[in-house]
Amino acid sequence: MKQMKQTILIFILIAGGSFGLHLHAQDRFLIGVSTQIHNTRLMVDYSSTRVKGAYRPSSVLFTEYEFGKHLGLHTGLGYTMMTQNSDAFKNNFHYLAMPLYLKIGRLKEDKCLAFTSFIGMDMHYPLKATHVSLNGDRTDIMDYTQKFHADLAGGAGVKFRLSNRFSMEALVSISHGSNISVDNAALMDINNLNTGFRINLSYKFK
């Protein structure tokens, strides 16, 4: 809980700083919504194992502040779900999602297309975790789930101008992170590799 409070405080400070910068440079400030879906490959004890039907859809409201000639700071708050399916069980995880990225590349005023990329962290705080057995029994597994974890993330794509203020960005992305399962005495390290794509729709203040 202490880590969660610290993370929320950091997010508030970043958002507040972005808002302050917006007051002085509105033409560099964007808000938007991001829709994402990633396939998750789990790596347990460094032996790679693919879980059937593992995916991670997300929806995030974000804010972005452009600085320098080509850079930007991207952060936001949203929801992420991860589902793990196998022949014996199904696990459903629901997360509060908090991205923090350095964006590279910018759509210039006289251009309709730009190449963009990002690098940073995807931070997650679990809201609910449920294990579903073959007979339909449901078990709350929040006590066996690490309360906070972060993935290193990066990606690249293109940004299109839709109008004077609206733009759309299509990106392929990859992230890697780990969490500790407390379901066993060894505190097994579970690594995950996520690959997928995301669509960002943004509005730029003028």
Helical content stands at 10-25%
If you average the pLDDT, what whole number results? 79
CATH architectural designation: Beta Barrel
Count of helix runs: 1
Radius of gyration: 19 Å
Major sheet strand order: 1-3-4-5-6-8-9-10
Please give the CATH class: Mainly Beta
Number of beta-strand segments: 10
End-to-end CA span: 39 Å
General description of the model:
The structure is a single chain. The protein is mainly beta and 206 residues long. It has one domain (2-204): Beta Barrel (Porin), CATH 2.40.160. It contains one helix and ten strands, in the order H-E-E-E-E-E-E-E-E-E-E. The protein has one helix at 2-24; strands spanning 29-44, 47-49, 55-67, 71-85, 89-104, 113-133, 138-140, 149-161, 166-180, 189-204. The chain has an eight-stranded antiparallel β-barrel with strand order 1-3-4-5-6-8-9-10. Strand 8 and strand 9 form a beta hairpin. The radius of gyration is 19 Å and the shape is elongated.
Question: What's the structural blueprint in terms of helices and strands?
Answer:
Elements (H helix, E strand, L loop, with lengths): L1 H23 L4 E16 L2 E3 L5 E13 L3 E15 L3 E16 L8 E21 L4 E3 L8 E13 L4 E15 L8 E16 L2
Antiparallel strand pairs: 1-2, 1-3, 1-10, 3-4, 4-5, 5-6, 6-7, 6-8, 8-9, 9-10
